[in-house]
Amino acid sequence: METLYDFFAKPKDPKQYVGVRLSLASPGEILKWSHGEIKKPETINYRTFKPERDGLFCAKIFGPTKDYECNCGKYKRMKHRGVICEKCGVEVIQSKVRRERMGHIELATPVAHIWFLKSLPSKIGNLLDMTLKNIEKVFYFDNHIVIDPKATPLSRGQLLSEEQYREALETYGDKFEAGIGAEAVKALLNSLDMESLYKEIRTEILATNSSAKRQKLAKRLKIVDAFRRSGVNPVWMIMDVIPVLPPDLRPLVPLEGGRFATSDLNDLYRRVINRNNRLKRLIDLKAPDIIIRNEKRMLQESVDVLFDNGRHGRVITG
Q: Are residues 101 and 63 in contact, defined by beta-carbon separation less than 8 angstroms?
């Protein structure tokens, strides 16, 4: 399969393509596309109008804003083509690379991709044999979920309220493993073996007499089989890294009076970066668990809005 860059690089004869397939990208693949990590929510400096370093329009990551000219102006013109400025770190090339170079945001905690959580049937819920309502309780920090019951009478995938979780800790101590949020679901998805799960569901379908149950199992089997055949790891539905679109696809347009019109995407990326940086600081400061949990939930919500604005019922426009 052609990579994303090869596909858009040069116009080719349409007859050469058999088809286009969309699939889940692994964290490694997202990092391969990226030219650098975006650490700051800033876009441009409003005095110099130059992109802020490590920000959403960073010239070091995405390329120069002017053809064959670095950010600080040390290298200009085509004779310096390919040189990386030792002062500002910008490569001296054509500015059109800002239409194709991607960046990434390294998340402080894993988050779920809303398309695989909320689209019906929920792919994550189906794989774990859970209803959308229950799986949302885990992702949005309402309930804990049992990851490994070990020798306790608890069952794998069982939901525990805060009170039940505390009681279980008092009773069993560290004899069981439970978690909350996308990290817990990631651990559950990681423990799935698609081949044995496929055989298990097929056996269940043959053994059941209920048509409703058979129908439910058939839906689950279809999703398991799709993952099994494609070789896609279901853990990739939980993201540790978020790709960032090239800046020229979400531009800042100058208006009269020194103001700028911007794409909503920049505000949505800014919201994710702000919450992610705040969460990193809180983790470093060893803040109370309840504060960290709330910040993780807010990060999940900001990523949901970035990928599918309005799915929560309220459209956020910056």
A: yes
Q: 263: domain range?
A: 29-108+245-289+302-307
Residues 145 and 195 in one domain: yes
User: What H or E segment, with its residue span, contains residue 214?
Assistant: helix 211-230
Q: How far apart are CA 72 and CA 48, in angstroms?
A: 11
- 57 with 160, same domain: the answer is no
- How many Cα atoms occupy the beta-carbon half-sphere of 195 within 13 Å? 1
Whether residue 127 sits in one domain with residue 235: yes
pLDDT tens-digit series, residues 123-136 = 898 888 888 899 99
Neighbours of 84 (CB within 10 A): 14
Could you read off the pLDDT of 215-250 as tens digits, one per residue? 888 888 888 888 888 888 999 999 999 999 999 988
95 in a domain, yes or no?
yes
How many domains in the chain?
2
Dihedral (Cα; 224, 26, 140, 317), 10-degree rounding: -120
- Give me the pLDDT at residue 83, please: 86
**pLDDT under 70: residue ranges of the chain:** 1-12, 310-318
pTM equals 0.86
Left (φ > 0), alpha (ψ -120 to 50) or beta: where does 193 sit?
A: beta
- In sequence order, the β-bridge partners of residue 253 are 261
**In the prediction, which pLDDT does 1 show?**
46
Q: State the Cα–Cα distance between residues 289 and 282, nearest whole angstrom.
A: 10
263: exposed, middle or buried (C-beta count within 10 Å: 0-12, 13-18, 19+)?
A: middle
CA distance 249 to 5: 15
Do residue 213 and residue 264 come from a single domain?
no
Phi-psi label, residue 216: left if phi above 0, alpha if psi -120 to 50, beta otherwise:
alpha
Kindly state whether residues 143 and 227 are assigned to the same domain.
Answer: yes
* Positive/negative CA dihedral, 136, 141, 142, 148: positive
User: Alpha-carbon distance 300 to 109, whole Å?
Assistant: 9
Angle between helix 264-284 and 289-307 (nearest 10): 160
